[in-house]
Amino acid sequence: MYNGKKILALITARGGSKGIPGKNIKPLAGKPLINWTIESGLKSRYIDRLILSSDSDEIITTAQKAGCETPFKRPVALASDTSSSMDVIIHALNLIEGDYDYLLLLQPTSPFRTNLHIDSIIKKSIDNNSLSSVSVSRVKKHPAFFYSLEDNKLIPLLSKRKQTRRQDMPPVYECNGALYFTCIDFLKKERSFNTGIEEAFIMDPKYSLDLDENLDWKIAESFVEKGIIK
């Protein structure tokens, strides 16, 4: 709880993963991937309850052993490649008893987000009376240098691109998938984390790695091996 507001944290982890098969329980630096997120959630000063939504018995068992609450098993209909993440969230909210003011969504594919990040976004959002906040990180390349291809010709994505040095470009950010924090009543009404009013919670890129394919996994392992992430 923070400033009188009760906070529910939800970890979403389905069993079927094509990019990295079995990734949610695949060992990363000696422990299952999902444990990284569970541990950071359990260390939070402000989370009142940490729960898991999964369709996989193996993921559920792994989460239980790590100390995460698993109050239900996600229906198969909400665990396919085409399932809506918002439907998964609303399903969990409808099943959970108790009155909570805010929801924090934690995805296991962002293992390097820490309890300090978690507590910071909670404190900042509630102090600022934010209805919704999303974590972002600065991108290295500005969209002014991005192109699409038409008949193998380079077409600038920004039609009015101004020629300037990269270092003179204004900073640009992307959602990194690590933290989504929102007022539950607002979320149920809007059913989106992209409403146009979200406030940015900026994270260092080294904590923002999103594990989607095997190359990401190798980078994550190297971060730990080299002491970039401890």
- Largest β-sheet summary: 6 strands, mixed
Query: What average pLDDT do the residues reach?
Result: 92
Report how far apart the termini are. Answer: 27 Å
Strands, total number: 10
Strand content: 15-25%
CATH topology: Spore Coat Polysaccharide Biosynthesis Protein SpsA, Chain A
Rounded to the nearest angstrom, the radius of gyration is 19 Å
Q: How many individual domains?
A: 1
What is the strand arrangement across the widest sheet? 4-1-5-9-6-10
> Percent helix among the residues?
25-40%
What ranges have pLDDT less than 50 throughout 5 or more consecutive residues? none
CATH superfamily: Spore Coat Polysaccharide Biosynthesis Protein SpsA, Chain A
* Bulk shape: globular
Structural class: alpha/beta
**H/E series, N to C?**
EEEHEHHEHEEEEHEH
The number of helical elements comes to 6
- What is the CATH architecture descriptor? Alpha-Beta Complex
CATH class bucket: Alpha Beta
Protein name: Acylneuraminate cytidylyltransferase
InterPro entries: CMP-NeuNAc_synthase (IPR050793), Cytidylyl_trans (IPR003329), Nucleotide-diphossugar_trans (IPR029044)
GO molecular function: N-acylneuraminate cytidylyltransferase activity
